[in-house]
Design goal:
globular; mainly alpha; 245 residues
């Protein structure tokens, strides 16, 4: 944990500062604007994520270096769908995906800070030297941007019913990621084994099925925890606003 390389110690804080500066600038520029206008940066992020993924697939196909890790089965690739649905579905349906889009982005953000090499490898050092490095670093930066921009720019009316979105989204992902991981023999998001020794010990002791159930249960539980913290922060902010009004 927190095994940052020398490149990570420079690249990740700089990325965070840039994201924060952009969020502050957008909050100032779009202050008082409609929700439709405030969503424009989020639409751009969703479009950029799709564009980067298409470019990645084409790069590896054309260069003849395509491998199993490029197949979009990683959870971060799944975020393309979640964020796109959150942004482009009719409002009646997009709300269901907006909460997990933020929470999952925060979760990925946290994992990037805790163990950057498991998320972006050594690409902090090579982001300007190769397209794979550029793609990996900036794609994950866009995920961070999405969480920060939506939290800063948009109004949030959270309901407890939204907790249901986490098991639905996680289990939908598991329904295709687990079979693909076993079929191809590739360890997408630690489905086959864990680099975190306590979890790997659990897998060896209790078996593969119990391990995978625990893995996705942890993802759901942590997502719910992030939502609960977010819910009470919003509640506290609204309470203070009413008090000061």
């Amino acid at each position: 944990m927190f095994n940052w390389s020398e490149a990570d110690k420079i690249a990740i804080p700089v990325m965070m500062l840039i994201v924060a500066a952009l969020a502050v600038a957008l909050a100032f520029l779009l202050r008082g604007k409609s929700e439709k206008i405030k969503n424009i940066p989020l639409h751009i992020i969703a479009a950029l994520m799709i564009g980067l993924e298409i470019a990645k697939q084409l790069y590896f196909l054309i260069s003849g270096t395509y491998h199993l890790g490029v197949i979009p089965v990683h959870f971060c690739s799944y975020m393309i769908m979640i964020i796109s649905l959150a942004q482009w579905l009719p409002k009646k349906y997009s709300t269901f995906f907006q909460v997990p889009a933020v929470v999952f982005s925060i979760l990925i953000w946290a994992l990037l800070l805790i163990h950057p090499s498991s998320m972006i490898g050594n690409y902090s050092a090579t982001m300007f030297q190769s397209f794979p490095g550029f793609h990996s670093f900036f794609f994950h930066s866009l995920v961070v941007c999405y969480a920060v921009f939506r939290l800063v720019l948009c109004k949030h009316s959270l309901k407890w019913i939204y907790l249901l979105s986490f098991p639905v989204c996680v289990l939908f992902y598991a329904a295709y990621a687990v079979p693909v991981a076993f079929k191809l023999g590739f360890n997408y998001i630690n489905i086959l084994y864990s680099y975190f020794q306590p979890l790997e010990n659990f897998r060896l002791s209790c078996g593969q099925v119990a391990y995978d159930i625990l893995l996705f249960s942890i993802a759901i539980a942590v997502s719910c925890l992030i939502f609960v913290v977010w819910f009470f922060i919003i509640k506290l902010i609204n309470k203070r606003r009413k008090k000061n009004a």
